[in-house]
């Protein structure tokens, strides 16, 4: 009971942080202009982006099936698809709950052991993590000169200028940073020497072990080429959901395909934040990137963030509810048979 209360308090806390970020990034903007842009948006492109999102979710279910078969169990693609969408629906209420939910629903629907399914989800997360890191890496490589110029112009030169005017804050900042690093190193070594089973480092070790088991599952899997192909297609469709939304409003329609990868990487980090549905964090990172990196005006940047985020949320809510109803009906049918 206490654990559930703590979980919901944590969710409300992070949701409050997300809403606060959303308020801070949009305050002072012309709300009427944002509403007008949303009304006049080209919803053909948004609809195409939604189709890409649906296909990506189905391919994720097909890819999950391959991992499940590696464990020696069989499930149908539609069952796994319904479970995936039910998991996405659960994530909108409690972050990370979706991974548990989709394993529970599929376990009940297909009589596959929950522990086996949980292991395959860890393997999926491992592969998706490496894929996201690859996208971030290549995004930086392809825009290296552009990003280097932006960082120099926005951060380095102003910091040097302020530092030369008054060295005291700069020196104090360096000393404080060194003390924090030294304190962190001492804390880490102390915890490693005296581990607590319910503590932070025990959880880190447990997650690391799950990471290693996930990698081993991928190594044992048959048809690794198909798994990689499905992963490329999934993330390619994720990219299309971001890129197609550029054309929904005039202010972002000129952005390059490389900019789409930047927004995909930034948006994914926003969704990964422990905030229900990435509310606030997704918008904050997307709006800041569009405004600061690509010099998009505040209102169009906000309009794009709402469009791209709503595109994902609407799909997850509609298909999540439908999938939950179908799985519930199938379970009742089996019980009555």
Given as residue ranges, the uncertain stretches (5+ residues, pLDDT < 50) are none
Give the rounded overall mean pLDDT. 80
Number of domains: 1
* Strand percent estimate: under 5%
Order of helices and strands: HHHHHHHHHHHHH
Separation of the first and last Cα atoms: 35 Å
Q: Quick one: how many beta strands? A: 0
Structural class: mainly alpha
Helix percent reads: over 70%
- Biggest sheet details: none
The total of helices stands at 13
What is the C-alpha radius of gyration, as a whole number of Å? 23 Å
Shape: globular
How would you portray this structure in words?
With 337 residues, this protein is an all-alpha fold. It has one domain (2-336). The chain has 13 helices and no strands. The chain has helices spanning 2-26, 31-40, 43-70, 77-93, 97-110, 114-142, 144-165, 167-193, 200-220, 224-246, 257-272, 281-293, 298-336. Helix 6 (114-142) packs across helix 9 (200-220). The chain is globular.
Short note summarizing the structure:
The protein is mainly alpha-helical and 337 residues long. The protein has helices at residues 2-26, 31-40, 43-70, 77-93, 97-110, 114-142, 144-165, 167-193, 200-220, 224-246, 257-272, 281-293, 298-336.
């Amino acid at each position: 009971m206490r654990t559930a209360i703590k979980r919901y308090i944590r969710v409300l806390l992070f949701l409050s942080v997300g809403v606060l970020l959303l308020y801070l990034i949009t305050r002072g903007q012309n709300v009427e202009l944002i509403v007008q842009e949303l009304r006049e948006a080209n919803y053909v492109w948004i609809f195409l982006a939604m189709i890409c999102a649906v296909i990506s979710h189905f391919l994720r279910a097909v890819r999950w099936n391959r991992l499940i078969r590696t464990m020696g169990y069989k499930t149908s693609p539609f069952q796994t698809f319904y479970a995936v969408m039910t998991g996405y629906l659960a994530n909108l209420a409690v972050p990370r709950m979706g991974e548990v939910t989709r394993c529970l629903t599929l376990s009940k629907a297909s009589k596959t052991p929950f522990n086996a399914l949980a292991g395959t989800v860890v393997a999926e997360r491992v592969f998706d993590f490496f894929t996201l890191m690859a996208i971030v890496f290549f995004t930086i490589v392809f825009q290296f000169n552009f990003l280097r110029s932006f960082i120099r112009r926005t951060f380095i030169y102003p910091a040097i200028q302020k530092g030369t005017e008054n060295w005291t804050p700069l020196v104090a900042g360096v000393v404080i940073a060194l003390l924090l690093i030294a304190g962190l190193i001492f804390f880490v070594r102390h915890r490693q020497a005296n581990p607590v089973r319910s503590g932070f480092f025990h959880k880190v070790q447990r997650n690391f072990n799950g990471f290693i088991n996930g990698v081993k599952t991928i190594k044992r899997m048959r048809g690794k080429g198909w798994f990689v192909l499905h992963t490329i297609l999934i993330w390619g469709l994720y990219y299309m959901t971001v890129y197609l939304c550029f054309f929904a409003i005039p202010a972002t329609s000129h952005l390059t395909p490389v900019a789409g990868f930047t927004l995909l990487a930034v948006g994914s980090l926003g969704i990964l934040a422990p905030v229900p549905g990435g509310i606030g964090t997704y918008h904050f990172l997307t709006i800041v990137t569009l405004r600061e990196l690509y010099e998009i005006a505040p209102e169009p940047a906000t309009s794009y963030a709402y469009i791209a985020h709503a595109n994902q949320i609407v799909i997850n809510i509609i298909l999540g509810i439908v999938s939950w109803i179908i799985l519930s009906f199938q379970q009742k049918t089996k019980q009555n048979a």
